[in-house]
């Protein structure tokens, strides 16, 4: 089965690190959604995500909270924000649960 035909459930955690300290910039649990198009960032840093393509929120489908389901052309995008002007290290953490269609 092609990777594009698989269903992925993803939880995303974005962490910005520096030599002095680290600060969590974005955490998407996917339970704070505006309809099914916008997912809120729990860190209140203005980094809310907008769903596109065939992406949708899978209620009770995540490991801990809800999950984001992607089928081939789904995505979540975040508008430009000064919090994303990364100059040092970046850590991204997420869980992927691949499922057949």
Summarize the structure.
It contains no helices and 9 strands.
Can you walk through the features of this model?
With 101 residues, the protein is mainly β. The protein has one domain (3-96). Helix content is 0%, strand content 48%. The protein contains no helices and nine strands. The strands form two sheets. Strands 1, 2, 6, 7 and 9 form a five-stranded antiparallel β-sheet that branches. The protein has a four-stranded antiparallel β-sheet with strand order 3-4-5-8, with no helix packed on it. Strand 6 and strand 7 form a beta hairpin. The chain is globular. Residues 1-9 have low confidence and may be disordered.
The structural class is: mainly beta
User: How many separate domains make up the residues?
Assistant: 1
Number of DSSP helical runs: 0
Poorly predicted regions = 1-9
- Radius of gyration, rounded? 14 Å
Q: End-to-end distance, in Å?
A: 9 Å
- Overall spatial form: globular
Largest β sheet strand count, sense and barrel closure: 5 strands, antiparallel
Strand content: over 45%
Note the run of SSEs as H and E: EEEEEEEEE
**DSSP summary, beta strand count:** 9
Mean pLDDT: 70
Give the proportion of residues in helices.
under 10%
List keywords for this structure.
101 residues; five-stranded antiparallel sheet; mainly beta
Outline the fold blueprint.
Layout: E1 7-17, E2 22-28, E3 33-34, E4 38-39, E5 49-52, E6 56-58, E7 67-70, E8 75-78, E9 89-99
Antiparallel strand pairs: 1-2, 1-7, 1-9, 3-4, 4-5, 5-8, 6-7
């Amino acid at each position: 089965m092609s990777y594009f035909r698989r269903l992925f459930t993803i939880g995303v955690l974005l962490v910005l690190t520096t030599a002095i300290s680290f600060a969590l910039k974005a955490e998407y649990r996917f339970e704070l959604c505006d309809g099914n198009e916008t997912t809120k960032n729990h860190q209140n840093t203005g980094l809310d995500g907008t769903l596109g393509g065939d992406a949708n929120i899978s209620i009770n489908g995540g490991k801990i909270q809800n999950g984001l389901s992607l089928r081939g052309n789904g995505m979540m995008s975040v508008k430009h924000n000064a919090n994303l002007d990364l100059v040092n290290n970046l850590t991204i953490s997420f869980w992927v649960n691949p499922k057949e269609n």
